[in-house]
Amino acid sequence: MPCLEVKNLTHYFGGLCAVSDFNLALETGELVGIIGPNGAGKTTVFNLITGIYRPTKGLIRFNGKNLTGLRPAAITARGIARTFQNIRLFNNLSVLDNVRIAHYAGMKYTPLEGIFQIGRFSDEEERISERSLELLERFNISELAETEARNLPYGMQRRLEIVRALATKPRLLLLDEPAAGMNPSEILKLIDFVRIIRKEFSLTIILIEHQMRLVMGVCERITVLDFGATIAEGTPEEIQNNPKVLEAYLGEEAAV
Amino acid sequence: MNNKIKTQNARKRMISGASFFLSTFAGFLTCCLIQRFKLINPYILMVIMYVGINIILTASLNLINGYMGEFSVGHAGFMAVGAYVSSILTVRVFPVQHAQWFFPLALIAGGMGAGLVGMIVAIPSFKTRGDYLAIVTLAFNMIVKSAIENIDAVGGPRGFLGMSKLTTLPWIFVWTVLTLWIIRNFIYSNYGRGVLSIREDEVASELMGVHTRRVKVLTFVISSFFAGVAGGLFAHLLQFINPNSFNILKSTDILIMVYLGGIGSIVGSIIGATIFTVLLEILRPLEVWRMVIMPLVLVFLMLFRPKGIMGFRELRLFVPEQYRKAVARWRLKRKEYDAVS
Fold this sequence. Notes:
The complex is a heterodimer of chains A (256) and B (341).
Chain A: E1 4-13, E2 16-26, E3 31-35, H1 42-49, E4 57-62, E5 65-66, H2 72-78, E6 80-82, H3 95-101, H4 111-115, H5 121-138, H6 154-167, E7 172-176, H7 184-200, E8 204-208, H8 212-218, E9 221-226, E10 229-234, H9 236-240, H10 243-250, H11 252-255
Parallel strand pairs in A: 3-8, 3-9, 6-7, 7-8
Antiparallel strand pairs in A: 1-2, 1-4, 4-5, 9-10
Chain B: H1 2-37, H2 42-67, H3 75-93, H4 99-125, H5 132-149, E1 160-161, H6 169-187, H7 190-200, H8 202-207, H9 212-238, E2 240-241, H10 248-261, H11 266-282, H12 290-304, H13 321-324, H14 326-340
Antiparallel strand pairs in B: 1-2
């Protein structure tokens, strides 16, 4: 049974077709890339999978269960986490709080226990703080736990966003242009980072990216989108030599 | 090793809890003495009690406008619900000779009434996003006012009277401390972090697993509960309420106190409510002109300190021990763990 199964996914913004008949089947543990020119509908696919938009048509199944129509929080609870193209951290909150919030659903006390600081409140808070700090320690950010997220350097913010996503205990991780704005040496580090988390957290990963170095470096399979339609699928080598892909990226003449 | 730290933490928490309880008790006793022996001139006593009520109103509105980043402009409407519910209870339902014993019950009932109404307002308002809440709460404030004006059973536009003066300084003190304590605990709990994350980025918050709509409704209910309690205290201090005491201008006053003191801050709520209330009294000789000076103060504040005096900053006193030292405690624990292994 595939981990994630997307069938005939179609989405319209008014009259504009952002994604048409998108299909994707992911086996557990796979690392698949989605590439395509700007405005091709890549991020829309992520927004549909995570429930921010409801698809006009189509089916999304995760571990055999239908996801369409669920609230984003419910989808996160099922084990899908994501990062954003433009970093969306909780800027005015501390690094630690950013990770603690990702444990929201795992906290087992009621509002009343919280308000009066009774019952499971203390133990649960302690447990979550420790778990968050251990996660930060694992990725060398624990020194900055009390810093406000907006004061982190850019690369750190990118890393924190991934760590925060990991804190929701995902089985499928969606990375939306994680290398945006990074220089070549940072990209090499990111490639290692993605490989490490994939192994350590036994994740299935979908990666949206413009940086070919990253995509060709880590992805096993690539899907290419253009104007909402899938124009090619295959291994990195196949994609690199596919004339349709070259056309989409470089224009018709260059492809000839 | 682990257990040792656990008992240490428990002891620390007990000490801070005990000191909080003792200082509160001391404050309560002082208030009782002042009330009993009339140590303060009655006018000043009245102003102090107003300050207390305004702190409750400001802190509760700050929960929505400051911590959650939504914009509610009809707080006086919830105050009205609490004021009328508790007044009706003490005047018509509870036995008059034991009124003072039933007073807290009446206040809680008033708060719950306001909380229930808050829930009815919140559920549809939070289905959509953006400025919708401001319009809904504005309308709500007006609806409450005209509804009361048209119910003859509670005096209509003439107002409602017959309450005995049950609001005393000790009660004000107890409710103010209780409100601030509960709001602080809420903010520094799991749900409070949810509230803050909604302010920071609602989409990201939802995607991190926060049930944003439930958190928003819960916050709104807590906020309106305390507005209702403040309304009850207000009604039994003035011993007379009419729909006009809860018009949109009253809501604006509360908004001013929130933005004066500082959004997203408990100390800010205290400072804002105190400065505003006291300043209005000091400026009383200027009569109508004070309505010129207050807005001017606000304009300059927005120009030079747009987040208010204490915007997003908190006194250490108001941050729970457990929250503040989480990192230090974790480091200590790791160190001891490493030493063993």
